Amino acid sequence: MNIAILGGTGKEGAGLARRWALAGHSIIIGSRDRERAKAKAAELREITRKMPIMGESNMEAAKLGAVVVLALPASGLATTLPEVSDACRDKVVISTVVALAFGGPRLYTPPPAGSSAEEAQGLLPGAKVVAAFHHIAAHELAETDHPIECDLLLCGDDQAAKDTVAEFGRSMGLRPIDVGPLSNAGLLEGITAVLATINRRYKLKNSGIKITGL
Ligand SMILES: NC(=O)c1ccc[n+]([C@@H]2O[C@H](COP(=O)([O-])OP(=O)(O)OC[C@H]3O[C@@H](n4cnc5c(N)ncnc54)[C@H](OP(=O)(O)O)[C@@H]3O)[C@@H](O)[C@H]2O)c1
What we know:
The chain is an alpha/beta fold and 214 residues long. The protein has one domain: 3-Layer(aba) Sandwich (Rossmann fold), CATH 3.40.50. It has helices spanning 11-22, 34-48, 58-64, 77-84, 116-123, 138-142, 159-171, 185-201, and strands at residues 2-6, 26-31, 53-57, 67-70, 92-95, 128-131, 151-156, 175-178. The chain has an 8-stranded mixed beta sheet, with helices on both faces. α7 (159-171) links the parallel β7 (151-156) and β8. α1 (11-22) packs across α2 (34-48) and α4 (77-84) packs parallel to α5 (116-123). The chain is globular, with a radius of gyration of 16 Å. The relative contact order is 0.15. NADP nicotinamide-adenine-dinucleotide phosphate is lined by residues 7, 9-13, 31-33, 36, 71-76, 79-80, 96-98, 100, 134, 137-138, 192. The site of NADP nicotinamide-adenine-dinucleotide phosphate has 26 residues, from α1 and α4.
């Protein structure tokens, strides 16, 4: 399937692109700068030895993707999403976004909408937003020589959209776990701040989360 990754020039988006390309999906890296997207796509084709990775503006990527992934900083949602809103209509949109503020007094403050995923849903009213992949560290995504030892926690209001995202998770070896409606996204996003704190405390780059008892 065609997966567009807005902000795919960054660590998280590029890591997702690597795993999905290896799983056989076609990737469109999106960027505010088309040339930067093309350069990142060429780099990822070289690393993965997979051809179907291309680079485009965020707008073109959103048009071309059957599914659209948001891999942007939270501060970029309000400026990026209005212009891609039509292109995302009726599509599954995966939000990986977490409003982390490194170096400030608080690592994580929930956005006024409750979560970045709900903010994205408000800016993309025609899309089916699913919050997922927040707990899969970019470092871990990039280490494609071994499977990822984490569960994929996801939430959203559209069951078919969640099933699609669960399948994308399985395609990169993750066990998907449905964590309910999109109103739970703030809880998932907050866990990323916990993992970032664990990484700092224990000098790791890739702490993750696995649910027991299932
Ligand atoms: N890194 C991780 O391990 C990790 C783990 C879980 C979740 N996340 C979340 O995933 C998202 C992406 O993380 P990342 O580490 O890849 O972030 P990043 O490298 O800071 O940003 C990703 C891309 O977003 C674009 N961008 C930057 N500022 C922007 C703005 N103001 N408006 C629009 N686009 C902007 C840039 O691409 P262009 O300049 O090419 O447009 C950049 O390459 C974040 O919300 C983060 O919290 C990250």
